[in-house]
Design a protein that fits this description.
heterodimer; A: 18 strands; globular; B: mainly alpha; about 50% helix; elongated; CP12 domain-containing protein (chain B); disulfide bond (chain B)
Chain lengths: ~400, ~130
């Protein structure tokens, strides 16, 4: 399952021996050339495959719960790099590394103030560096990535990032630059509607002494022009969009606790087969609560339909309401198809693992978990495909 | 619970109950869970997010102060000229610092991780790594 490429380089000495370094997976082959002055050694590099996932969301790298759900599907908990800068935004698990794109700010907080640009503005970000480093990691080369310190607002000295099996780049602009977009194997856009955003920010900020309802509202309004101009257009490029809207089950609800969540899945994406309900490509409206399953207020409602999104064919799976009990979740899971689970009840088990995370009882947690399983499936298919391609090439 | 809040949050969460255990002959662990979860319950979670190290406590306080300052600043700048570039940048700073504050809260509360944990294991003698006591 390893790709091997052979390079010839100049050598300092020429002795005939073989050494291997397990951490960098490189094998050095030295060959003696007594007759000529030219001495060279042959470098064989065996690299692992790296897939790159892009996740676009407002509020930069605050998606800790989404990331942790994602990484837990692959196994292992994601933690900040050990012993490094405590204000690092990076998360590392056995298989996955999550990079925060705020680290590619070309202007720190003071620079942005001076130049009068927000963090949402592409002028505040170094897309050349982003492209180079993501490309390097994808090709199995470690990089020294800068750190943007959100507490001080300054750019800290870089940290070493080793190429992982799965690289996730999350932030405001993963799909903004075309070159970076082409490096992504899968991309997700988290689209929060204005009402829900307002409700969530109230919950997030009201406990702070500096904030009031007015300040929260003003902050959202002031960021809107840049957000609509630079961030929002990225959703047309995403392979999956998770749209979070206010519920239709409770009239005039403005608390944002019960949510209507839509998983918009692009058709025709390689290695990605959309989840469906009952009959693929048809339009289904489903209320699981009835004789076999009793739900409490406000209940659960599902919708599934084919649609068109920015001139692409998509399938949309929608959940409105919330889960109250475990058997509701497993009942729903047993009726969904194409989940890419490895065993019956895997979605439920993953949701249970993080039962205390926000969104565990509604569509946000459910669809985040499903997207995680889809990414795992994509990774395994990609690896298997590359292995067979190499085997065929050798033959 | 949608996002972290400082003190209490109401939410219906899924947790297996360990009180009733009836033996089930079917294979899957999930089905065993089905038998042990009570019919209906709601859980009010009151978790106190406390820092373990002085460094984290100082960061928390610094971020809270910065939020206050920057909100004041943004309000003043925007009074002068609404929707100017300075106004937008000022509110963007408020957002950045508010999110950083919330992230720290989430890390401490949900994940029970003090961000300085691994740093302090390597450097226990620094000021930042003194244990914080209320």
């Amino acid at each position: 399952m390893a790709v091997s490429t052979i390079y010839s380089t100049q050598a300092l000495n020429s002795t005939h021996f073989l050494t291997s370094s397990s951490s960098s997976k490189q094998v050095f082959l030295y060959r003696r050339q007594p007759q000529t002055n030219r001495r060279f050694n042959t470098l064989i590099t065996c690299a692992q495959e790296t897939i790159v996932i892009g996740l676009a969301a407002d509020s930069g790298c605050g998606k800790s719960t989404f990331m942790r759900r994602l990484t837990s599907v692959f196994g292992g908990a994601a933690k900040p790099p050990k012993g490094g800068n405590p204000d690092s935004n990076t998360l590392i698990s056995d298989t996955t590394t999550v990079i925060c794109l705020d680290d590619y700010h070309s202007l720190d907080r003071y620079g942005r103030k001076e130049q009068k640009v927000t963090a949402l503005d592409p002028r505040a970000n170094d897309f050349d560096l982003m492209y180079e480093q993501v490309k390097a990691l994808k090709n199995g080369v470690a990089v020294e990535k800068p750190i943007y310190n959100h507490v001080t607002g300054l750019l800290d000295p870089p940290e070493l990032i080793q190429p992982p099996k799965i690289l996730v780049i999350e932030g405001l602009h993963p799909m903004f630059d075309e070159r970076v977009r082409d490096l992504l194997d899968f991309s997700i856009y988290l689209d929060i509607s204005n009402e829900v955003k307002f409700a969530w920010k109230i919950q997030r900020d009201m406990a702070e002494r500096g904030h009031s309802l007015e300040s929260i509202k003003a902050s959202i309004e002031a960021r809107k022009p840049d957000f609509d101009a630079f961030i929002d257009p990225q959703k047309q490029y995403a392979d999956a969009v998770i749209e979070v809207l206010p519920t239709t089950l409770i009239p005039d609800d403005n608390e944002g606790k019960v949510l209507r969540v839509r998983l918009i899945m692009k058709e025709g994406v390689k290695y990605f087969s959309p989840v469906y309900l009952f009959d693929e490509g048809s339009t289904i409206s489903w209320i699981p609560c009835g004789r076999k399953l009793t739900c409490s207020y406000p209940g659960i409602k599902f919708n599934y339909e084919p649609d068109s999104y920015f001139d692409h064919e998509v399938s949309v799976l929608e959940m409105d309401g919330q889960f109250d009990r475990l058997d509701e979740l497993i009942y729903v899971e047993s009726h969904l198809s194409n989940l890419s689970t490895k065993f019956y009840g895997e979605v439920t088990q993953q949701m249970l693992k993080h039962a205390d995370f926000p969104g565990s009882n509604n569509g946000t947690g459910l669809f985040q978990t499903i997207v995680g399983l889809k990414i795992r499936d994509l990774y395994e298919q990609l690896i298997a495909n590359k292995a067979t391609a190499r085997a065929e090439a050798k033959a | 619970m949608i996002s972290g809040s400082a003190t209490a949050s109401h939410g219906r969460v899924l947790l297996p109950s360990h009180r009733e255990r009836r033996p089930v002959s079917t294979g899957s662990n999930i089905l065993r869970f089905r038998e042990t979860v009570p019919r209906q319950f709601s859980l009010m979670m009151v978790t106190k997010a406390t820092a373990k190290y002085m460094g984290t406590k100082m960061r928390e306080e610094k971020l809270s102060e910065m939020i206050e300052e920057k909100v004041k600043e943004a309000t003043e700048v925007c009074e002068a000229e609404e929707m100017s570039e300075e106004c937008r940048v000022a509110w963007d700073e408020v957002e950045e610092v508010s999110q950083a504050r919330a992230d720290l809260r989430i890390k401490l509360k949900l994940l029970n991780q003090d961000p300085l944990e691994s740093f302090c294991q390597e450097n226990p003698e620094t000021d930042e790594c003194r244990i914080y006591e209320d």
